[in-house]
Amino acid sequence: MNPRERFLHALLGEPKDHTPATCVTQVGIVEVMDAIDAKWPETHFDSKKMAALGASLWNIAKIEVVRVPFDLTVMADALGAKVDPGKVNVQPMVKGHPFTSADQMKIPDDFLKRGRIPVVLEAVKILKEKYGSTLPVLAGFEAPFTLAGHLVGTETLLKWAIKSRDQVKEITKKTTEAAIMYAEALLKAGADVLSPCEPTASTNLISPKDFRELVKPYLTDLAKSIDGYFILHICGDATLIVKDMAETGMQGLSIEDKVDIRSAKQMAAGKSRICGNISTANTLIWGTPEQVKEEAKKALDAGVDLLCPACGLAPITPLKNVKAIVTAVNEYYGLPG
Ligand SMILES: [Zn+2]
Fold first, then answer.
1. What is the CA(187)–ligand 1 centre distance, in A?
2. Which of 257, 258, 145, 272 is nearest to 199 (CA)?
């Protein structure tokens, strides 16, 4: 099997030769940016550099994926949010919100031509042409509830979730429409798998009941509207919502290290496959390669379907720790390293 076949089989629960060592979240790390001259922030605005960095963990570490972009502000920016481009080791962040009420939000006619959307679409095209026959091409973006927070302010959105739930539903319905348009364009450009990230829907910020009422219906709409594969990432301890995440119809769920793989697999059984969950906040940044391998093998023992970092890689993650994920798989299955 080549890495693309292995990844897609693993994602769909079909027979595979072994569990892939991959990454379904942000892949850019500073050590590699320096080595290939594709540094943040300029790489966020340059499709060639974006594609090069998106393929870098495959080229340098044999992590089985090519993936762009490296932040969660592309749609917000195209819809009028103020975005700080960040630094070499800091992701772009939303700094100003264009709307104060849900009815102000409109999707511009030229939405897909605005901001950095054309840069990402071009980077996906480059990756598909160069790597698409042997590697899975992934494209990430901010999922509807998180995007709604970017447009009105996350604090405002969470206040509305208490006092003004119709506003949450109205704006999230619109951000879902925007996400569907963008997702279709990403697939057309050559993405194999879409990875919507929904950090604002973490159980640290909203209750499981709110997840079911204010987030899940829109993720379900997104998955149903698009003829493509999805991996949904939600940060933090998603244990109480894994079953709901699986019911959205998304083929893969990317979970963090606070979630137990075995119970996640049970809750998602027959619906979604589990991607995870080597700690990005602890082991991958601060641990040794031996500790990364140990945690990776625990996830493999637990039956993880795609072995991945728990969340987006922190830019300061050492390359040797990323390489240890691949070594862990090679050692676990007795493959030639
Ligand atoms: Zn996360």
1. 23
2. 145
